[in-house]
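Hi team,

Filling in the usual template for the complex we talked about on Friday. All components are listed, including any nucleic acid strands or ligand strings, so the model treats them as one assembly.

SUBMITTER: L.P.
PURPOSE: interface mapping
COMPONENTS: two
RESIDUES: 597
SEQUENCES:
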Amino acid sequence: MRKTHPLVYFTLLAGIVLSAFPLYWLFVVATRANDVVGDWPPPLAPGPNFGENVGRLFAADDANFLLGLWNSLLSSAIITVSVVFFSSLAGFAFAKLKFRGRNGLLLVILATMMIPVQMGIIPLYMIMVELGWQNRMEAIVVPALVSAFGVFLMRQYAEQAVPDELIEAARIDGCSTFRTFWSIVLPALRPGAAVLGLFTFMGAWNEFLWPLAVLEADNPTVQFSLSQLSTTYYTDYTLMFTGALIATVPLLLVFVAFGRQIIGGIMEGAVKA
Amino acid sequence: MVTDLRPRTAPSTPAAGSRPPEQPRPRLRDRISRVEVKWSPYLFIAPFFVIFAVFGLFPLIYTAWVSLHDWDITGAGAFVGLDNYVALFADPDFWNSVVNTLGMLVLSTVPQLLGALVLASLLNQKLRAVTFLRMGVLLPIVTSVAAVGIVFSQIFDRDAGMVNGLLGLVNIDAIDWRADKWSSWTAIATMVNWRWTGYNALIYLAAMQAIPKDLYEAATVDGAGKVRQFWSITVPNIRPAIVFTVIMSTIAGMQLFTEPLIFGQGSFAISGGSLRQFQTVSMYMFEKAFRDFDYGYGSAVAWMIFLLITLLGVVNFLITRRSR
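RESULT (copied from the run log):
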C-alpha cells in the first residue's frame, strides 16, 4: 500500500474538530458569564465563572436539576443491570437451549425490534394512571427493564461465544440449567454484555419523550430538567450550558473508560444481518 | 473447544446412562432434571415476554383501539369508528407536521450518510492513531441529547449565534433561523447530522474492512482510479450496511422529537415555533395527547406515524432492490 496522503489526515482532523467543537463550546460557555456569550469574535477560552453558574443552576427551583441528575443516574443504572441480565438469560436460551416454539418466539422478538415502542405511549400512560405511577420513577424504569434489541444482540453473541461442549460438560457434572448459565455462560458473555450495557445506559440516559409525558417538573429526569431550563431560562445561556455540560459528563466518562468497546460494538454488532 | 462436531446440544435425555447410579434414587433425580431441562428455557425467556407484553406490545395494539374512540382524560367516550382518521386527513396541522418531518428527514439523512461514506473511506486508509481518530468522530454520540439541542440552539441564535457571526464575515445578513421552515429545518438537521455522522461512518468502515483487498489490486491493474474504485467496488460491496443505515435513520428521523422541541424554546416549544414551522409528527402527537388530552386523536396520529414508517420502509426496500 502507498503511503497515506497528508490530505487524508488533514480532512480527518478537520472532521474531528467539527465533532469536538460543540462540546468544547459547551465547556467554554459553561465557565463564562452571560454578557460575553454573544460577543463577536466569540470567546474561545474557558472563563472563571463555572462555580457561580453551578450554584445558580442548583438554585433554579423550577428545573430541579440535582433531583433530575439523581433520578437519571439511578434509573439508568437499574435499567442497564436489568436489561443486561434478562437479555443474557433469554439470549442464552435462544442460542443454546432447545425448546418448542423457539424459532417462532425469536421471530416475534425480531419483528418487535422494528416497531417503535414510543408509538404506544398513550396507552402506556393510561396504564401508569391505573398503577398510580404518574410522576414516579417506576414509570420510567419498569417498562424499560427488558429490550428486544438486547435479547437479539445477546443471542447473536452467545451463539458464537459459548461452545456447546462447555454447556454439555456442565450438564454432565450435574449443573442445573440456571447454574450453567450463571457460572459458565455469563462469564463467557461478558464482552457482549459490556457493549449492551453501555448502549443501554446511554439510551436510558437520553430518554426524553416518555419522561416528558409521564413525569412532572418537580420529579424530572436530567433531560427533562434540561428542557425545563430551555423553556424558562432560554436567555440565560450560561445556566443552560452548565446543565447541559453536567448532563453530558456521565456519558463522557463512560466513553473515555469504554471507548474501545463501544467502537468494537458498533463495528462488530451493528450489521450482522 | 476444538472438537466442534455438533452444532447444538440436544439434551432431551440428560445424564441418562452417562453416570453410574451411585445415588440411592437415580430415577427421581432423573425426572427432576428432565423437567428442569424441559422448562427452564421458558423460565429464562419469560421475564422478557411478560414485561414486553404488558408495557410494549399491549400499548401498541391498544393504541389502535383508543384511536377508534372519542377518548379524553376522563376516560373512554363513544366509539366513533374512523372519525378520528377522517378528521386527521383534513387536518392541515397534521399534514404540516408530516411535511416538516419529511423535510428534516431528507436534510438530515442524505448529508449524514454521504458524509459518513467519505469519513469511512478516509478512516479505511492506512493510518496512525487509529483509536484516537475513531473515538474522535464518535464523540458526538456521547453528548446527551438535550445538550445537543441547547448548544445548537445557541449556535443558531439570531443575535448571539456563531453561525450568523460567520455569515457576517462574508457579508450575509443575520438569519432568523427559527422564523422559517427551511432555516429551522436546516438548523435542526444540523444537530442530527452532527450527532450521527461518525456513528454511521464506523458502521461503513466495518463493512469496508471486510472487502477483499485483491478486488482493489485487480482494479488498479486494470487502470481504475480511486474515485472509480470507490463507486464500483466499495459502494456495491457495503450495500447491506448502507441499506441498514438508511432504514435506521428513517425510523429515527420519523420519530424526531427532542432536538426540535429544545430548539423551540419558550412557550411555543411543543408546537414547533409560533407558526408550527418545525413541528414534527411526534411533537404533534404529543401535543394532542398530553397538552390537549385528546387521547383518541393522539392515538390516530401515532398509528399514522407507524404507517408512514412502514410505508417508507417499503419504499426503501423497493428502491434498494431495483438499484441492485
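MY TAKE: Confidence is low (pLDDT under 50) at residues 1-17 of chain B. Chain B is about 70% helix and 0% strand.

Thanks, L.
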